[in-house]
Design brief:
2 copies of one chain form a homodimer. Chain A is mostly helical. The first copy, chain A, has 2 domains: 54 residues, Arc Repressor Mutant, subunit A (Orthogonal Bundle); 138 residues, Orthogonal Bundle (Tetracycline Repressor, domain 2). In chain A, 66% of the residues lie in helices and 0% in strands. In chain A, helix 1 packs across helix 2, helix 4 runs antiparallel to helix 7 and helix 4 runs parallel beside helix 8. The longest helix of chain A is centred in the middle third of the chain and has 23 residues. The radius of gyration of chain A is 20 Å and the shape is elongated. Chains A and B meet through helix 6, helix 8, helix 9 and helix 10 of A and helix 6, helix 8, helix 9 and helix 10 of B. Chain B binds a DNA duplex through helix 2.
Chain lengths: 203, 203
DNA sequence: ATACATTGTTGACAATGGCTACTTAGGCGC
DNA sequence: GCGCCTAAGTAGCCATTGTCAACAATGTAT
């Protein structure tokens, strides 16, 4: 991780290094409330150096959130089966990957959804965040065309899917899906209920 | 609220006053990251006075969260129709009240779900939090008995309901339910999808 | 070579904020 | 009255942090 010999005065690629270090810290810690100074410390530079690459802390956070959306989309794409048995199967696999991303990257996920003074809205309307949403939309659209998903306004179905998946992710991250409340396989159960609700009963 | 003339040296009921003041602040601000000093300031006492009634800040936060659960349960009970047209109607009304509670009390709701170093689990297993969950369970149970809700393990159905409702609440609080993504009535759509998923198709 | 822009370093400011002593006010039993 | 307990006030420690200003090193174009 740390470069070996007598760090040259100029890092060379500190911007990237700061981002990488911050992502590392998000991996380690539970929350995204790291300090810029700590990032600098871990990156092996002085505490003010990051300011040469980011106007302020919020800028770094926004950048990290965007990277989070990119990675989430990649996760979802990777989880999409190439030859799905059914659309319901596909939807389930993608949803599972979504929740897994959240539990694997709790701090990053929280950051992506933390309303930094109402800026969350803007972030979520960015192209890179919409790309994640489009994965869901595309599946629903295809399902409607194929007849396996109810023909309802697709935005509403997307709302249901997003809401349930986001909710389960948050609950999972917070460790609240304890068997006392939701049994032993809450995610399976929730997803199958969702799929029932979205699915066309005629099929 | 504020006692009138020349505050006596001893407040008399500072514990309650601190809680009330903190609840006021939660109503005003978006987050629950108020400072104890600010609470004391608003309550009109010195910044150290609260420590006579709460060992530390976390204790106050826990107390507030519990009150939140109490109020949420009351809201749900109040929303439960006395003579519901159907169980689906009842479920929808209660769910709507849940989300409304969240959007009406965003900071308090966030506090209730903020994992203060993994203590969220304990809080949510407390009797007063479980009482909220029981409202959902009871409706599902009754629905299963009446045959209008699918006969599936009830914990799984509760997971789906909780997940979707909590998710929609969080999205609503964060202002993310914008029409560009989820259309004009996302909550309606999501709840009807949920009800479809939970409902017994035979009926 | 030399000027200039870039990128890092050092140091400090200002605000914050939880928490802890120690001191004072006041009520209550005796 | 007297002493004691509780509740409140005052003062401050101590650590943290975002940010900025001034300075130093390095690379680059002329």
């Amino acid at each position: 991780m740390q470069d070996a010999p007598s760090r040259p005065y100029h890092h060379g690629d500190l911007r990237r290094a700061v981002i990488e270090t911050a992502l590392d810290m998000l991996r380690d810690e539970k929350g995204w409330q790291f300090t810029l100074r700590e990032v600098a410390r871990r990156a092996g530079v002085s505490h003010a150096a990051p300011y040469k690459h980011f106007p302020d802390k919020a800028a770094l956070l926004a950048e990290l959130a965007m990277i989070g959306f990119d990675r989430l989309r990649e996760s979802l794409s990777a989880a999409k089966p190439t030859a799905p048995k059914s659309l319901r199967d596909e939807l389930t696999k993608v949803a599972r990957a979504y929740v897994a991303f959240g539990t694997d990257n709790p701090a990053l996920y929280r950051l992506m959804y933390s309303a930094e003074e109402g800026q969350a809205v803007g972030i979520h309307l960015d192209e890179r965040a919409l790309a994640v949403f489009d994965v869901l939309l595309e599946i629903l659209r295809r399902g409607q065309d194929a007849g396996s998903i109810r023909k309802r306004p697709i935005e509403g179905q997307a709302a249901a899917g997003w809401g349930l998946i986001h909710g389960m992710t948050m609950l999972a991250i917070d460790g609240l899906l304890v068997s006392e409340k939701v049994g032993s396989a809450p995610l399976d159960a929730a997803l199958s209920t969702l799929v029932e609700g979205l699915g066309n009963p005629a099929t």
